[in-house]
Amino acid sequence: MSATPFIMDHPLIQHKIALLRDKNTGSKEFRELIAEVTMLMCYEATRDLPMKEVEIETPITIAKTKVLAGRKLAFVPILRAGIGMVDGALELVPAAKVGHIGLYRDPVTHKPVEYYCKLPADIGEREVIVIDPMLATGGSAIDAIKMIKRRGAKNIKFMCIIAAPEGLNALTEAHPDVQVYCGALDDHLNENKYIVPGLGDAGDRIFGTK
Ligand SMILES: O=P(O)(O)OC[C@H]1O[C@H](OP(=O)(O)OP(=O)(O)O)[C@H](O)[C@@H]1O
Ligand SMILES: O=c1cc[nH]c(=O)[nH]1
Ligand SMILES: [Mg+2]
Asked: Which residues form a coiled coil (predicted)?
């Protein structure tokens, strides 16, 4: 059985996503908002990181307390748009490694086309969080996760800012073991497989390419 997707309902996240949707938000502000939303979402997606008990000497006494158990984390952005989320993720987990997967959607078939894959050598020992702002048909996320699994990773999460129901269903069916985190769940896909209402083409808005 697949894990229930986690749809963020935090007011700060919803507010910032509303600004992202606005077609009058320019590239500079768009990039900043993507980083801020990612940081807030990462806070939630790292909630179950394992901890260990330690003893720390405070100025008063010895405290039995908890720190991160040091399980290694890797963020894997799906190029290009996923790159926009890297800074926000590293702001919260600066020691994480970063892999890259290059995929673009063919404009006619809407199927993902692979062009790059470079992951940390020890990816099999890491908890992996795949990041991409948009989950539309789900094709890119499904293929990216297949590529990461093929290289040995077992513990994988997927984090997107906006998802379409079609993509969310396809992803949870293809990879029931992957916990999915979405900033917002939108209504549907249009005839060009863009998310409605969505925010348009995330990559083009981040990099100013349209
Ligand atoms: O769920 P899907 O239907 O596969 O669509 C989602 C993909 O589309 C976008 O990338 P795009 O192909 O526009 O590439 P880009 O990031 O280089 O702009 C987006 O960033 C996802 O990777
Ligand atoms: O709505 C969409 C769908 C795919 N990719 C995007 O950037 N936006
Ligand atoms: Mg794009």
From this structure: none
> Closest ligand 2 atom to the C-alpha of 81?
7
Query: Is 0.95 exceeded by the ipTM?
Result: yes
128 lines ligand 2 (CB under 6 A): no
- Residue 203 CB coordination number (10 Å): 21
Ligand 1 proximal residues by C-beta, below 6 Å: 78-81, 104-105, 110, 112, 132-141, 167, 193, 201-203
Whole-model pTM: value is 0.95
Q: What is the CA radius of gyration of the chain?
A: 18
194 phi/psi in degrees, rounded to 5: -95, 150
Say which residues have a Cβ less than 8 Å from residue 209's Cβ, sequence separation at least 6: 203
Please give the Cα distance from 195 to 205 (Å, whole number). 15
